[in-house]
Amino acid sequence: MRILLSLPFLALALLPATGEDKKPEGKPLFNGTDFTGWQTADGKAVAKGWVVKDGAMVREAAGGDIWTKYRFGDFVLELEFKTSGNSGVFIRTDNIKNNVQTGIEIQVDVPATKPGKHSVGALYDLVAPTKDNTKKGEWNKMVVTAKGNMITVEINGEKVNEMDLDKWTEGGKNPDGSKNKFKTALKDFKREGHIGFQDHGAAVSYRNVRITLIK
């Protein structure tokens, strides 16, 4: 059964991926007017903390992390962010109630003095970005490509990070021998899941959130 919704020209019909429902391709994940297709970690409608302003989703007060209702596997995710502090973009998160252990986070933050595994553009606790080319207090564009075992991150038109999941063969340890927070080896992570934006207490905005599925 295929269900079609009539929405504004920027809107996207986002329904739980069950049966023959078709996932969106090359479409907005956020329609710029409301939180259609998004949910809280409890599976409820986004109703507090996050608001829509000038076509952007804005974290104004405590509202918790927010998540797509769909799960995605291989894709190119494009978005713009502007932040006053710590936030993050989660990808392929299997359990949104346990995102720290079942998803991969691309760090969103203000520019760092020295790039590290917890600075903007990092694959959090896993790989430091090669550089920090973000602009404080301005909109920055991020492109995340997840294809099979490879994940790459571009910020403002430059590739700043990359990882091969198959090289993470032990829980709690990175290939370079340093420790990480993950109890499970990342090579064993599910290669599909929810996309989410983190509420870490800072004011942050996201806009022009689009996804293209890789076949």
Q: Mind explaining what this structure looks like?
A:
- With 215 residues, this protein is an all-beta fold.
- The chain has one domain (27-213): Jelly Rolls (Sandwich), CATH 2.60.120.
- The protein contains 1 helix and 13 strands.
- The protein has one helix at residues 99-102, and strands at 27-28, 38-40, 50-53, 56-59, 66-68, 75-83, 87-93, 104-108, 140-147, 150-155, 158-164, 194-197, 204-213.
- The strands form 2 sheets. Strands 1, 3, 4, 6, 9, 10, 11 and 13 form an 8-stranded antiparallel beta sheet that branches. Strands 2-5-12-7-8 form a 5-stranded antiparallel beta sheet.
Low-pLDDT stretches are 1-21
Write the H/E string, N to C: EEEEEEEHEEEEEE
The total count of strands amounts to 13
Total number of distinct structural domains: 1
What global shape is seen? globular
Separation, N- and C-terminal Cα atoms: 22 Å
Kindly report the CATH topology.
Jelly Rolls
Radius of gyration: 16 Å
**Highest-level CATH class:** Mainly Beta
Q: What class do helices, strands and sheet pairing give?
A: mainly beta
Number of helices: 1
Features:
215 residues; Jelly Rolls; five-stranded antiparallel sheet; disordered N terminus
Strand and helix map with partners:
Elements: E1 27-28, E2 38-40, E3 50-53, E4 56-59, E5 66-68, E6 75-83, E7 87-93, H1 99-102, E8 104-108, E9 140-147, E10 150-155, E11 158-164, E12 194-197, E13 204-213
